[in-house]
Write a structure and sequence with these properties.
The chain is mostly helical. The chain has helices at about 60-65, 70-80, 90-120, 125-140, 145, 150-170, 240-245.
């Protein structure tokens, strides 16, 4: 998996855009309704969340799994350097609009970076490089330029390249094509999903304990509440941290080196190994008879 730390949210360098710009409705993911452009009541004046350590317990698991892919700090530090939406209503509207465009562009940048790491030199890799440069140029635009970006059209040009990179990485695995499959609550314990194309599949609440997901493509897969205990995701393609944060797992769940086991997963604290008890002085260990 590619190193994409620069495409992860850095709240310390943002002015709380994800807590203001998007709308969310009262649901299992959010404890209350919030319209777009209105600050979350838990947002503090220093742009940090006042209940960050209690989000799940307070009914905001949707906030826990959200990632702006670095768009928040880019809009805060580059598009509007040194500006804060609290100081000027006109600036606020522009910043929120810029964020809603920059965020999906940064998500595409993340996927393109991952695809480049999977693709050997050749025409496809060259096309991925060009697409990444074009996407970065769009994301670096002025507020006016960002407002003019047709994100859906650009995504439509990029997705075939990402699919081709996935096909190349999964070649020879014989993985099943389960694109867009509705697997809500499915019993997939111990399933061999090696090299499967799961792009856009719904695996909400699915039981994937002990499943083999090596080289499976999980682009856009909804893993909310999925049970990944003991599953092998060590080489899963396009697996993002927010997908893991939305799922359940344990320390036996194998992950790529760049991702971490979420803190709410079970069995993450290893039991200390106790030293063997000392034998009484003068005793000898009984040898097993040879067979």
């Amino acid at each position: 998996m590619a190193e994409t730390t620069g495409l992860r949210g850095d709240c310390a360098r943002c002015v709380g855009l994800c807590c203001v710009a998007p709308a969310f409705a009262a649901s299992a993911d959010f404890a209350q309704h919030k319209p777009a452009g209105r600050p979350c009541p838990h947002l503090r004046t220093d742009s940090r969340c006042g209940i960050h350590d209690e989000l799940r317990e307070r009914g905001y698991p949707g906030c826990v799994v959200f990632d702006c892919f670095g768009a928040g700090q880019r809009v805060s530090q580059v598009t509007y350097p040194g500006r804060d939406w609290r100081d000027d209503p006109d600036t606020a509207a522009g910043m929120f609009a810029a964020f809603t465009v920059a965020r999906p562009l940064h998500e595409l940048l993340w996927y393109l970076t991952e695809a480049l790491a999977l693709t050997p030199p050749g025409p496809l890799r060259d096309a991925l490089h060009a697409a990444r440069d074009a996407t970065d140029t769009l994301a670096a635009g002025t507020p006016e330029e960002l407002a003019a970006v047709d994100v859906d059209a650009h995504r439509g040009r990029v997705n075939p390249l990402l699919s081709a990179a996935s096909d190349t990485a999964r070649a020879g695995t014989g993985g099943a094509d389960r694109r867009g499959a509705m697997l809500l609550g499915a019993d997939l314990r111990g399933a061999d999903l090696t090299g499967a194309n799961l792009r856009g599949a719904c695996l909400v609440g699915a039981d994937l304990r002990g499943a083999d997901l090596r080289r499976a493509d999980v682009t856009g897969v909804d893993l909310r509440g999925a049970d990944l205990r003991g599953a092998d995701l060590s080489s899963t393609l396009f697996l993002h941290q927010s997908q893991l944060d939305a799922a359940r797992g344990d320390r036996r769940t194998a992950l790529p080196g760049t991702l971490r086991h979420p803190g709410h997963w079970t069995g993450l604290t290893l039991t200390p190994v106790r030293p063997p008890a000392a034998r009484p002085t003068g005793t000898t260990r009984r040898r097993r008879p040879r067979r």
